[in-house]
Amino acid sequence: MAMRRFDPRGPQRGPQIRVNQRIRVPEVRVIAVDGEMLGVMSTQEALRRAQEKGLDLVEVNPKAEPPVCKILDFGKFKYDEKKKAKEAKRKQSVVEIKEIKLRPKTDDHDLSFKTRAAHRFLEAGHKVKFTVRFRGREITHPEKAHEQLDWIVKQCEEIANIEVRPAMEQRTMTLLMAPKPALMQKVAQARLAAEKARQKAIQEGRAPAPVDKEEDLEKLEQELEERDKGDEDDEDEGEGEGEGEG
Predict the structure, then answer these.
(1) What would the pLDDT profile of 1-23 be if each residue is shown by its tens digit?
(2) What is the pLDDT of residues 41-54, one digit of tens each?
């Protein structure tokens, strides 16, 4: 597999769906909630019709001339889209790259927690990118980041291989680890068995078993994000106090 350089900015946000007052074009082509084509009308008139039904006006094709909008329940629309995306992701069995962020001064307790999180991602068949971010003069002592990443590699070496060795990129040091082939084979077999059980349940008219593991991983990612945000807030407060003392 060809090596690629990491983008320290992370994944970029996709295009946002425009809804109701965020639709700023003067006129739109409207589709009713039941799929009936209502034709071209002013955006204000389309909004009025949506509001009369207690629904939303949602732009579904912004590139058309004029843009195409549909009257629907936007909350339900978002839920359905998320459900479709999860279903497509489950069928593709895509190997994702989960990012775990560190700082040179990350304490031992936090480092252990994030390493255990990495274990769970790897055991689920995902790659893990560790990103150590440097601030200020921390950049002059990269050896601390190397020590952290070396320790992480030792903790994960039984289930993962190093895919990209620690390397500096601007003010970050990154390491990429991937599950070992034997583990990936085990994960693939478990996914296949789960999919067969799911299809059998559907054929027999039973509710498929919930995919608890993926939901648990999503909760874990949220907890990691909350910890990272808390660390950033603490650092900002510390920098502010330092400036006041000066």
Answers:
(1) 344 444 444 444 456 889 999 99
(2) 999 999 999 999 99
H helices present in the chain, as ranges: 43-52, 74-92, 108-123, 143-156, 181-203, 212-245
Element (H, E) at 127: strand 127-133
Q: Could you give the 3-state DSSP secondary structure of residue 131?
A: strand
- Which domains, and CATH codes, for the chain? 20-72 (3.10.20.80), 86-189+197-224 (3.30.110.10)
**Token pair 């067969």: residue:** 196
Whether the per-residue pLDDT at 25 is higher than 90: the answer is yes
Within 8 A by CB and 6+ apart from 102, the residues are 111, 114, 130, 131, 132, 133, 145, 148
Query: What's the CA gap between 198 and 201, in Å, rounded?
Result: 5
How far does Cα 120 stand from its chain's mean position? 16
Q: What is the mean pLDDT of the chain?
A: 83
Q: In what order do the strands lie in the sheet with 56-61?
A: 37-42, 27-31, 68-72, 56-61
Q: How far apart are CA 150 and CA 153, in angstroms?
A: 5
Structure tokens at 209: 């078993």
